[in-house]
Amino acid sequence: MNKFFSYILCFFISLLSFSQDQKKIGHTNQNKFKQLYDEFATPNAYRSASGAPGPSYYQQKADYKMKILLDDDKQMLYGEQEVVYTNNSPSTLEYLWLQLDQNIRKKDSPSLLKNSQSVEEINTISRFANSHLKEPFDGGFNITSVTNSNGDNLSFTINQTMLRINLQTPLSPGDVYSFNVKWWYNINNHVIDRARSGYEYFEEDNNRAYVIAQFFPRMCVYNDVEGWQNHQFWGNGEFALPFGDYEVDITVPANFILDATGELINRKEVFSKKMMERYELAKNSFNKPVLIVNQDEAEKNEKTSTKKTKTWKFKAENVRDYAFAASKKFIWDMMAVKVGNKNVMAVSLYPKEGNPLWEEWSTLAVAQTLKTVSDFTFDYPYHKAISVHAKNQGMEYPMICWNYGRPEKDGSYSDRVKFGMISVIIHEIAHNYFPMIVNSDERQWGWMDEGLDTFVQYLAEQEFGKNYPSAIRGYKNYPSRRGPAKKIISYMSYDQDFLAPIMSNPENVYQLGPNAYGKPATALNILRETVMGEELFDFAFKTYSRRWMFKHPTPEDFFRTMEDASAVDLDWFWRGWFYTTDYVDIGVEKIRELKFSDSAPEDYLKNLSDRGIEMSDVPPLIFAVQDDNENFNEIQPFELSPNLKNYLEENFTQKELSKFSSTNYFYEISFNKPGGLVMPIIVEYTYEDGTSFREKYPAQIWRKNDSEYKRVLVSSKKIVGVQIDPDEKTADVNSTNNIWPRKINETNFDKFRKRRN
After folding, report:
1. How do residues 46-99 score in pLDDT, each as one tens digit?
2. Is the pLDDT of residue 756 over 50?
3. Residues 332, 348: contact at Cβ < 8 Å?
4. Contact, 457 vs 423, CB < 8 A?
5. Per residue in 73-101, is it b (16+ CB within 10 Å) or e — as a string?
C-alpha cells in the first residue's frame, strides 16, 4: 500500500513539473552564429559550396555588330545591329529577351507613376510647372524592324522595357542564332531629367556634349539562377548583361571628338597628324598626361560648323556593354599606366567648362584607380580607361564613364568640388572591375557592384592622397566620404521604418546611397580592419575577384568565397550586416573591483555550522570581497594565513607565486549589447599612472549570451578608465555607454534614444 501511494505521489509531482514546464515555450534556433543554410541557395554543379564556379557552370554569349548615326541637329540616334547569340546553357530556348532601357523615357512609361506625389503648399513657379504642367519627354525606342539572318521578319512582343523575340524554331543547347534589329530614338537632355545617358546643352555657344549609353537593344542574361533575368527597368536597379564581342561604327559630325568602349581601329583616319604625334608621346608618358586636343584647339573647334560626317570604328572583346561620348567641345588627354606587365592608357575627355580642375586631376585619378584596384583584385585586362566630364553625372560602362565636378566660370573651385570630382572618377573607373568584369546582377543586387566598388574606392582614395599630397593640402588624409566605420552611424541609427537590409532589390529601399554604397563598403572595411585582419581579407577578396572574372557571381558566391579562402566563419557577420537592419551598440555596463581573503565571511561559517561541517574539513579557500562591502577598504589585496601561504608554496612555482605578490587589483568588467549586431569588442584600459593597453575580444563572445559578456582583469596597477571602440572602428551608434567612469552627455543621449525609438 505504501508503494502505491509513492507512485501516486510521483505522478502528481510529474504533473506539477509538466505544468510548470508549459510556461517555457519551445523555440527554433535563433542563435546569431548559426549557419546561413536557410538564407543561402543550395550548392550545385553550377555553383559550388566553396563559392567557386562549379564544373557545370555556363554563361551565354552575345556578339554585336552595330552601325550608329548621331544626328546633332535633331538630337536623334539611329542604329542597326546584328546580334549573334550563343546558347551555352543546357536549356532549349523558345524565345529570346532583350532590354529596351530607353523605354523608361516613353511618355506612357509606368516608371513615371511609381512614386507617390503630393502638392506642396509653397513652391517655385518653375518647379510647379515642371512637376504638374510640363509635357513628358517623348523618348523610348522606335523599333523599325526585327529580322532573322535571311531578312525575314520575326515575331516580337514589347512589354515596357523588355522585348521578346518569338523563335520559330527553339534554340537548342550549343546552337547559335543571328538576328537584326533597326531602331531610333530622341536623345534626352540628361541635365533636365538626371538620366544616365543623353546630352548637355551649352546655351552660350549652342553646342552639346553627348554621353550615350543604354542606347541599343541589349540581350538579357540567361543563367542557372534566374533563367531569363527580365526584371523590368524602373530606374534604380541597373543592369544584368552577358559578355560578348563588339564591332561598332559610330558616325558623327566631322568636327566631333569621340571615344568609346573598345579599341579605335581607324585612328589614322579620324586623327590629325598632330593628334597622332601626341598620342605616340602619351603612350610613353607615365607621370604626366599628354594633351591630344588642348583647350585652345577645343575652343576653336566648338565655334565651327559642318554638314560633313566622320565614322569612328571600334572593336571590343569580352565586354558586357557598350557606351560612347562625343562633342566638338572636348579637350582630350592621355597617359600610360603600368599595370602588371602591360601598359594601359588613362584617358580624359572634358569641355573647357571642366578646366582647370579636370586637366589637373582627372587622368591622374584614373591612373591611381587602375593601380590600386588591380593590386586588390586582378590586373586590369583592357587597354584603356576613360573619364568623361558631364554635369551631374556619375555613371559607368566598360572602359568609359561619366563624371561630375565643375569649377566656377572664373575657374575657381572649392575643396568640396575638387574631392567630389576625384572621388566620383575613382568610383566610376573602379566599376570596370565591379560589375564590368566581375559581372554581378545589378538589377537584383545593387550592393554587389556599388558596395564592393565603394569599398575599393576608399582604398584608392587613400592611396591617391599619399601619392598626390598637393591635392589634399590641409588634410591629414584624403577626406573619403564613405568607408570609415563612423561615416555610416547616422544611417544605421535611423528610423527603422525607413531602413531595409542590404540584401534588398534597389527599387525597394528608401535611401539607395547609404544602403547599396555606404553600408556594404563600411561592412567590408570593418571586416578587413577589425574582424579578419588585412592579410586574410585581402587574400580572400582577391580570390573572389579572380574566381569570378568575366563571370556572373551571386551574393552567396561572394560570401562563401570569403570564408573558403580565409578559414574565418563569417555567417554571423553576413547575417547581421547584410540580412538585417540591426545596429551596433556595445557598452560598459558595470565594473566591480574585488579583493581576496582566506578569512571566511560570517554567513559562510554559519552555513557550514548549520550543516555540521568544520572549516578544517574543507580545502583551502579564498573569498572574493566586492567593492560595496563595508569592510572592503580594510582588506589588503591578499590577506592570507600562514596555512594558505604554505599551501600555495607547495603547489605553485615561484613564477606563479610572484604574480600573487605583484597583483594588487582585480576587476570584474561587464559589457552589454543593447544593439542587435554581433561584433568584436575593442577595449582600451587606462591605468592610474597614465599608461594604457588594449584588448580585442572576438565576436564569438556573444555566441551563448547575446546580451552580456564578462571579463576578470588581474592587474598590478589601478584601472581608472575603460573605453570601448576608442578609434571608432565598429560603427557603434551610441558612444554614451562606451566609457567608464560614465560621462553621459544627456542631450546627446536623449537625441539617440529618440532617434532609435
Report:
1. 999 999 999 999 999 999 999 999 999 999 999 999 999 999 999 999 999 999
2. no
3. yes
4. yes
5. eebebbbbbbbbbbbebeeebeebbbbbb
Q: Give the 3-state secondary structure percentages of the chain, helix then strand then coil, rounded to 5.
A: 30, 30, 40
With b for 16 or more beta-carbon neighbours within 10 A and e for fewer, the 683-706 pattern comes to bbbbbeeeeeeeeebebebbeeee
**Complete DSSP assignment for 467-511:** H-GGGGTT-SS---SSSSGGGGHHHHTS-GGG---SSS-GGG-S-
pLDDT of 12 reads 46
CA distance 589 to 180: 69
Q: Are 582 and 501 in contact (CB under 8 A)?
A: no
Q: How far apart are CA 196 and CA 297, in angstroms?
A: 28
Cα 409–Cα 345–Cα 369 angle in degrees, nearest 5: 70
Q: Residue 439: CB partners within 8 Å, gap ≥ 6?
A: 241, 243, 320, 548, 550, 551, 552, 553
11-45 pLDDT per residue, tens: 444 554 555 555 677 888 999 999 999 999 999 99
Residue with the larger pLDDT of the pair 746 and 527: 527
- Which residues is 82 bridged to in the sheet? 65, 180
CATH of 61-113+125-481, one of 3.30.70.670, 2.60.40.1730, 3.30.70.360, 2.60.120.430: 2.60.40.1730
- Alpha carbon distance 96, 168 (integer Å): 11
Coil, strand, or helix at residue 413? coil
The one-character DSSP state at 219 is E
- Full-model pTM: 0.91
Confidence of residue 524 (pLDDT cuts 50, 70, 90): very high
* Region for residue 214 given its phi and psi (left: phi exceeds 0; alpha: psi -120 to 50; beta: otherwise): left
Whether 402 contacts 393, CB under 8 Å: yes
Beta bridge pairs of residue 665: 715
H or E segment at 360? helix 357-376
In sequence order, the β-bridge partners of residue 595 are 625
3-state class (DSSP) for residue 59: coil
**Residues 42, 244, 43: CA angle, nearest 5 degrees:** 5
How confident is the model over 615-629, as a mean pLDDT?
Answer: 76
Reply yes or no on whether the pLDDT at 135 is more than 80.
no
- Supply the pLDDT for residue 599: 73
In this structure, what C-alpha cell is assigned to residue 412? 575657381
φ/ψ bin of 474: left (φ > 0), alpha (ψ from -120 to 50), beta (otherwise): left
Mean pLDDT computed over every residue of the chain: 91
Categorize the per-residue pLDDT at 6 as very low, low, confident or very high, splitting at 50, 70 and 90: very low
What CA–CA distances, in Å, run from 564 to 352, 567, 679? 50, 6, 21
Pairing of strands 384-389, 400-403: parallel
Q: How many CB atoms within 10 Å of residue 558?
A: 24
DSSP secondary structure code for residue 538 in this structure: H
CATH code of domain 30-56+482-582: 1.10.390.10
Q: How far apart are CA 363 and CA 699, in angstroms?
A: 42
DSSP of 680-739: -EEEEEEETTS-EEEEEE-GGGGSS-SSEEEEEEEESS-EEEEEESTT--S-BS-GGGSE
Domain ranges of the chain: 30-56+482-582, 61-113+125-481, 584-757
From residue 617, give the alpha-carbon distance in Å to each of 146, 285, 643: 99, 89, 14
SS (H, E, C) 248-295: EEEEEECCCEEEECCEECCHHHHCCHHHHHHHHHHCCCCCCCEEEECH
3-state secondary structure at position 19: helix
- Indicate the SS3 state at residue 746: helix
